[in-house]
Amino acid sequence: MADKVTLRSLQRMKDEGRKIVGVVAWDYQIARIADRAGVELVSVGDTVGVNLWGHSNPFEVTMDEMVVVARAVRRGVERALVSVDFPFGPLQEGTAGAVRAAIRFVKETGVDLVKLDGAADFPEAVEAITRAGIPVFAQFGITPQTALRYGVEYNAIPSSADQVPVAMQDAMVAEAKRLEEAGAVLLNFTNSGPVVGAAVAAAVSVPVVGGFGGGPWLDGRMRMAHAAIGYAASALDNPPETYANVAWITLDAISAYAADVRAARQVAGGVPVPPAT
Question: What are the E-state strand segments in the chain?
Fold first, then answer.
């Protein structure tokens, strides 16, 4: 396995023009696979609520739930850096609550960074968490926790039409600089677009990555592992542009298993059943 990824590794990649690869993971097995694939960053996203548990929006996820998920992912990763999303609430409640949440994440899950959505509105929290010795991964732009401010419904965020308007370039650059000055070591610019995204990446010295609406104009990309492999049941009826369609593979496998059970045949991988006498 290659050397352990560090924050200095990410900074060096930006300085040398090499792209950072990040994935969002929610379980031990996917985390192990992503780590073996050699990604630099595994992010434990609060999107677990919507994409794995069926919630209508990410606001329903709790701190306790994120701790459980982060522990699982942390156990699966040896080489990459691991970050965890603050659920909605601790940051918005104030600096003291944000620091407590960050300390809890580090103590109870062992993550390397904490990720704050909408962090540009709370630079004092970024500063305080950094002073506590915990690296901050700051998210801004049209994000899951700030979408309503821009008049965008959560489910519409993936649309390329919801890129940050070019007219907001100066404001986004200012937000990025504010976050860097507050101590953030990594930025996630959501729905950046090629114009504003490129301007932001050039304006700050820390790496800028992006998920929805990101692209080669940033220092790296984030992608949900489950989205990349076509894991969701929706991929059965509306095949997305992914690197695999695990939903179809899973449907075929479970259907074949069911057929074997109904026909009284040996189940693949099961305990051998002796023939009837």
Answer: 20-24, 41-44, 81-85, 113-117, 136-141, 186-190, 208-210, 220-224
Q: List, for residues 170-212, the tens digit of each pLDDT value.
A: 999 999 999 999 999 999 998 898 999 999 999 999 999 998 7
Cβ atoms of 2 and 79 closer than 8 Å = yes
Contact 123, 178 (CB under 8 A): yes
pTM of the full structure: 0.90
DSSP 8-state symbol, 141: E
Contact call for residues 77 and 43 (beta carbons, < 8 A):
no
3-class DSSP state of 153:
coil
Q: Which residues contact 90 (CB under 8 A, 6 or more apart)?
A: 63, 97, 98, 100, 101
pLDDT in tens, 27-66: 999 999 999 999 999 999 999 999 999 998 888 999 999 9
